[in-house]
């Protein structure tokens, strides 16, 4: 069946895109370690007072949590399949939501990098980077899920 071939091809493309996005997270870690070693002791590029740094820190963690919740809600809404729906539409939606999820899951790590650059908080960077890695692996597409969505679209026979 043509849809099976198309689904495998789109799935492979999606996995390649996801892997490319996932590879950017270690690059952030390398950047952090280079800055820490070259600019010892690194306290960030910002000269804002400690109280304001803490406010920024709480804001960044709040944003990271908001993105986690947003990913969960978005995926739940976008992965609903109506019986009888066109398989190509389902496949395109699966690919689109997967790529969007990859990008959104990277945001906590990026926020951690921003926090590190502002205040030199490498521990917080690694916590947020780890959250991004967990999200990336948790939502990395699995072909069985795609097959399941396609079978729901055909209407469980």
Describe the structure.
The chain is built from six helices and no strands. The protein is mostly helical and 157 residues long. It has one domain. Helix 1 (2-22) runs parallel beside helix 4 (87-119), helix 3 (50-78) runs antiparallel to helix 4 and helix 4 packs antiparallel against helix 6 (143-154). The mean pLDDT is 89. It has helices at residues 2-22, 24-38, 50-78, 87-119, 122-138, 143-154. The two termini are 17 Å apart.
Bin the helical content.
over 70%
- What is the element string, with H for helices and E for strands? HHHHHH
Uncertain stretches of 5 or more adjacent residues: none
- How many strands appear in the DSSP assignment? 0
User: Could you give the distance between the termini?
Assistant: 17 Å
Q: Which structural class do you get from the secondary structure elements?
A: mainly alpha
Radius of gyration: 19 Å
Mean pLDDT: 89
Major sheet description: none
How large a portion of the residues is in β-strands, by DSSP E?
under 5%
């Amino acid at each position: 069946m043509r849809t099976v071939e198309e689904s495998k091809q789109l799935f492979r493309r999606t996995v390649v895109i996801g892997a490319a996005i996932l590879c950017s997270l270690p690059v952030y870690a390398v950047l952090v370690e280079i800055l820490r070693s070259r600019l010892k002791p690194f306290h960030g590029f910002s000269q804002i007072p400690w109280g304001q740094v803490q406010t920024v820190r709480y804001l960044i963690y709040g944003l990271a949590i908001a993105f986690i919740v947003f990913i969960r809600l978005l995926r739940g809404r976008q992965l609903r399949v109506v019986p009888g729906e066109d398989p190509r539409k389902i496949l395109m939606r699966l690919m689109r939501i997967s790529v969007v999820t990859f990008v959104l899951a990277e945001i906590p790590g990026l926020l951690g990098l921003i926090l590190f650059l502002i205040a030199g908080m490498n521990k917080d960077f690694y916590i947020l980077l780890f959250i991004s890695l967990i999200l990336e692996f948790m939502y990395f597409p699995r072909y069985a899920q795609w097959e399941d969505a396609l079978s729901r679209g055909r209407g469980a026979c």
